Amino acid sequence: MRVALYRRGHFNAAHRLYVPTWSDEKNQEIFGKCNNPNYHGHNYDLEVKVSGEVDPETGMLIDLKYLRDIIEEKVEEKLDHKNLNTDIPELRDIRPTTENICYFIYQQIKEELGEKYDVKVRLWETPRNSAEYPAD
Ligand code: NI
């Protein structure tokens, strides 16, 4: 029996969206307020979906405490109260957009869970804007 479990997470972080080789005008045009040179913060909300086969002996897909610990250690502790442009090596040379942060989080969790589970990550940058990886 295939089933999915969900676990939510949360962190606060700062970022600036810009392309260093572009002019100030072009960065402002493309990224708007997110190009503020002194950075700005978001309250990020996160939902991790883990799918797979239920273990017939335990009746469980995955130990939710284990999933909670992974999200805490691999995502929240790494990203919370950080500057995403400077503090996270994997994001340093790319734009810390919702899309790229979402993919980074997916990689962190997938690396830990391995092939046994399918993982999907949804990341809200604001209550109205979110990204999902992998996409349908
Ligand atoms: Ni922003």
Structure write-up:
The protein is an alpha+beta fold and 136 residues long. It has a single domain, classed as Tetrahydropterin Synthase, Chain A. Helices cover 32% and strands 30% of the residues. It is built from four helices and five strands; from the N terminus they run βαβαβααββ. The chain has helices spanning 24-31, 64-79, 89-92, 98-113, and strands at residues 2-15, 40-53, 82-83, 118-124, 130-133. A five-stranded mixed β-sheet has the order 3-1-2-4-5. The model has no long low-confidence stretch (mean pLDDT 96). Bound molecules: nickel (II) ion. Residues 15, 34, 40, 42 line the site of nickel (II) ion.
Report the portion of residues in β strands: 25-35%
Q: How many E-type strands?
A: 5
Number of helices: 4
**Helix share, percent:** 25-40%
Domain count, please report it. Answer: 1
Strand order, main sheet: write it out: 3-1-2-4-5
Straight-line distance between termini: 22 Å
And the CATH topology?
A: Tetrahydropterin Synthase, Chain A
> Are any ligands bound, and if so which?
nickel (II) ion
Summarize the helix and strand pattern as letters.
Answer: EHEHEHHEE
Specify the CATH homologous superfamily: 6-pyruvoyl tetrahydropterin synthase/QueD
> What's the CATH C level?
Alpha Beta
Low-pLDDT regions: none
Write the topology of this structure.
Layout: E1 2-15, H1 24-31, E2 40-53, H2 64-79, E3 82-83, H3 89-92, H4 98-113, E4 118-124, E5 130-133
Parallel strand pairs: 1-3
Antiparallel strand pairs: 1-2, 2-4, 4-5
Helix pairs in contact: 2-4
The chain binds nickel (II) ion (NI).
